[in-house]
Every structure is written in C-alpha cells, then in structure tokens.
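User: Predict the structure for this protein chain, please.
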Amino acid sequence: MSRTKEQSLLQGNILKSLISFAFPVLLALFLQAMYGAADLIIVGQFANTYEQSGVASGSQLFNMITMVITGLAMGVTVFVGDCIGAGKPEKAGRGVGTGIAIFAVLAVVVTALVVPFSDYLAAFMHSPAEAFSQTSGYVRICGIGTIFIIAYNVIGAVFRGIGDSKTPLLTVAIACIINILGDLLLVAVFGMGAAGAAIATVSAQAISVVCSLYLIGKKKLPFAFSKTYIRFDPVCLKKILLVGVPIALQELLVQFSFLFIQVVVNSMGVMESAAVGVAEKVCVFLMLVASAYMQSISAFVAQNNGAGAYERSRKALFYGIKTALIAGFIMGTIAFFAGDLLAAIFSGEAEVIAYAHDYLKAYAIDCLLTAILFCFIGYFNGCGRTVFVMLQGVFGAFCVRIPAVYLMSRMEGASLFHIGLGTPISSVAQIILCVIAYRIYRRETNGMAIRPEY
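Assistant: Here is the predicted structure, written as structure tokens:
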C-alpha cells in the first residue's frame, strides 16, 4: 500500500477516511456481484426454468469453492504485504512462488474431484430431476476451468499485497464485460442455456488471467521473482497458511451451510430451487455496503493498530456500524416491499419471482443484522483474531443456521420465508458472540483494541 494511502487511514477524519477507502472496494465488489449475477439474469430471461435451476445450484457450489480460494489467498496477500512493507523484496517473491505452488496443487485436486463426479455432486445437492443434467453440466464445465478461476484469485491476491487495488479492479471489470457478452452470445443467441453460461464464465476468467499476466509484464514489481521460487518454501508456507487456512475454513463451512439451504429447497421443487438461486444473487447486492465495510475496516484497523492508534480503530468500528446500518435499513426496506421487482431482473417466471420475494422478506431482516456483524468481523480480522472469526462463523453455520433451516423445513406448510429465517437467526447469535468477545478483548488490553498478530 502506498504511503499516501497509509496516511489517509492513519490521520484525519475517521469517517471520511473510512468512506473514502471503502468506496473503491464497494465498486470492485459491485463488479464481482454483476459478474456472478450475469449468468442467472441472462439465463432467466432467455432460457427456461430448468436451465435457471441448473445455474442456481451449480453456481452455489462454485461460489463455495471460490470463497474458499479467496480466503486462502488472503494468506498470500498478507504475507506479500508484510514483506514489501519490511523492505524484503526477495522474501516477498518467495512468498509469491510458494502461493503459486499451493494453488497449483489445489487446482489439480479441485478439478479431479469436480469434473469426473459432477453427476454425484448434482445428486448430492438434490438437484430437481428436471434440472439434473443442466446442474451437472454447469458444474462439469466450471470444473474444467478451475485452473483459471484459481489463477484469477491468486493474481488478485498478489496485487492487493503490493498495494495495487486498481489492477484487480480493472481485471474484474474485464471479466464482467466478457462474461456478459459471452452469456448474451451463447445463451440468448445460440440457446445453450446453463452450459452456455458456464462456458462464458470460464472464458471470462481465462481472458482476465491473460490480461492480468500482460499487465504484470508491463509493471515494475516491487519484489524479486524467479521460476526457482515456485516451490514450497517452509517459512513462507507456514506464514501463508496460518493466516489463510482459518479464513478459508470459515468460508468453506459457512458457504456449506448456504449450500445446505439450496439442497433443502431443491427437494421442494424446481420453482423453489430457481427462486432461491435468484434471491441469493439479489442478496449479494443487498449486502454490498456491509461487505465493503468488512474489508475496509479490516485494513483500517490493521494499519492503525500497527501504529498504536487503538482508540482510532475502535471508533472506526462504530462509525462503520452506524453508517452501515443506514444502508442496511434502506436495502432491507427495498427487499421487503419491492423484492419482487428485484427478483424480476433475474427471472421472467411469475411463480419464481413470487417465491423469491417470499425468501427475500426474511433477508430484509438480515440486512440490518449483517451491517453490525460484518463490521465486527472486519474489526477482528484487522486485530489478527482470525481464529475467533472462524469459530463464530462455524458456530453460526452449524449450530444455528443449519438446524434452524432443517427445523423450519419440517414445519407443516413451511414456505421459503421460513427457510430464509435461518440466516437472520444465525446472525443474531454471531453478533452476541462478537459483542462478548469485543468486551473481553477490551478488558484484556485495558480498553484498547487488540494489536495485530501477523
């Protein structure tokens, strides 16, 4: 991160600094959300409900895989950033090489598990019989392109580690545009449905990786690098995994809980299956501000704690919660009263839209709760408390969300609104844990924030 950006976070008005830092993060997240939503929107408008159900189920599975990769890549970001800040370019280069080695192995493993077993994965997700082949095909094609999905995330992690946020923003914009154009060509023109959406997704990632490598070749990188660095350096490996594994594990288990929701709903019927897929895509947009604050507060707190400005970190947390709550109230109101209009962007089926709106009414409650929860998660990540973040996420997913969804689904006359309530119930439990942990950590440090442990 540049010295100018550091000063903007360490000095001056806290709220202004936080919002200024969060805005480009919000923009990048919006483009990523558009990238992920394009498949479902275009398939919903130009193909049948079976194709849309296939995309909804398949993309939910790959969203889980992508979130795990992103979490693990955070270890590379932190390691490279620390080395650059400490003036150790060779060590940073060895960290990049170790990261490449880790994710090369991961790409082989994921591809080997997904491609040959796509039918089993579709069956595991209880994909409706009418949409089974579409789900399996979507998963298989995305599995073939796993190498590009992983490379895309690793390159982004390296750029963020050296303090370059503009290049990842540019590459995600390129990927978004290519994906939309590919969807329109393959789905709307050639009528390839879910398979066309999957091909467009993989192609967009591949082109984005090529563009990223081209930009790397044009840039003067602040670290030394050699092909001989692409190996498992023990020191680099340990530090990368210490940060990345807790985050990746949390993402895996939390996303699995949302995958469980999709599995439960898939058994209810193809319309409900497509509706939850639509609603989940809408929810990504509803949560954008909270997600942007989570990442921004993490960076803000890490820098200020490192500089000993503990009180400034604490104030940033509560400024973030207050402003995120405003956005959460607006988004929640829209979801509750106009969720059908939002769902109509993704689907032309009246029944799917009605089911999606029912599900979104539950998420309207979570818009407020997420504004609080995500800010706390960003704060604890910035304090280096990634193990606690993992534990509260796992507790929320497995001890609250999954049992709540299962019990709701067993109720007579259960609707998607009842299924959706599992998420805000989980958020309440996680917020309680965060408040307790915050009070304990403050007491341990005489009222100050926790110093980073990286």
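The longest helix spans residues 49-85.
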